[in-house]
Write a structure and sequence with these properties.
The chain is α+β, with helices and mostly antiparallel strands. It is built from five helices and twelve strands. The protein has one domain. The chain starts with a strand and ends in an 8-residue tail after the last strand. The structure holds zinc ion (ZN). The site of zinc ion (ZN) has 4 residues, from strand 7.
Length: 209
């Protein structure tokens, strides 16, 4: 079995799985458009998952998520919970899909404005020179347009709107948020300075290097 790539099927989705477009293999999902500064030790730790999700048109589709291998079981559990709860996810494609590119690299602004759910993205924290936990495959953004980042200076993406009555939006005590917290993840919606409602991360005590 190829450990770098896993297909996840639940009993209810076998036979009703819809493909948005041909799914990517590991090389395309991880390497295409990748920042050349990304070290091989990170690449070796990444797994590509095929994940069934409930889309906003109320159909089950197959998305793909790149994540750190240590988080595979938790991520499968959490997305399976979203499927069971019929929590809608707008789109789930690796950041290496060229529809998210600006100047040949994945653009976080485009990922957010297209409402894409994704994991691994070798980049710094916005407005910082520190690597994001996305760069280690230890963070997931879910429905960023419906769960925008709210800062003192405004909302990102700018066309986003935080309205908890919209399905697919997170809020305090939401069962999906609670499940992430129970699994030891941090939710950006609880931060003090900014509220990054789409962001979940599972940091280590220290950055690996
Ligand atoms: Zn994030």
């Amino acid at each position: 079995m190829n450990l770098r790539s896993m297909a996840i099927f639940t009993s209810r989705t076998i036979g009703e799985k819809l493909l948005e477009k041909p799914l990517m293999d590991w090389e395309a999902a991880v390497l295409y458009g990748l920042n050349p500064l990304c070290p091989p030790t990170i690449l070796e730790s990444l797994v590509l998952l095929d994940i069934p999700y409930w889309d906003s048109g109320r159909e089950v589709r197959t998305g793909q998520l790149v994540i750190h291998r240590d988080l595979v079981a938790e991520v499968i559990f959490l997305f399976d919970l979203m499927l069971k709860l019929e929590f809608p996810i707008a789109m789930m494609r690796p950041v290496s899909d060229p529809i998210f590119f600006l100047d040949g690299r994945p653009s976080d602004a485009l990922l957010m404005s297209k409402n894409n759910t994704s994991g691994f993205h070798y980049r710094n924290i916005a407005g910082s020179t520190r690597l994001s936990w996305h760069a280690y495959g230890r963070a997931v953004d879910i429905n960023p347009l419906w769960n925008p980042c709210v800062t003192a200076s405004g909302i990102e993406p700018s066309e986003g709107r935080y309205d908890t009555s919209i399905p697919g939006t997170f809020f305090e005590n939401h069962p999906v948020v609670q499940a992430f917290l129970d699994a030891g993840w941090i939710w950006g919606g609880k931060w003090k300075q900014i509220q990054d409602y789409h962001h979940f991360e599972k940091p280590l005590q220290q950055t690996p290097f």
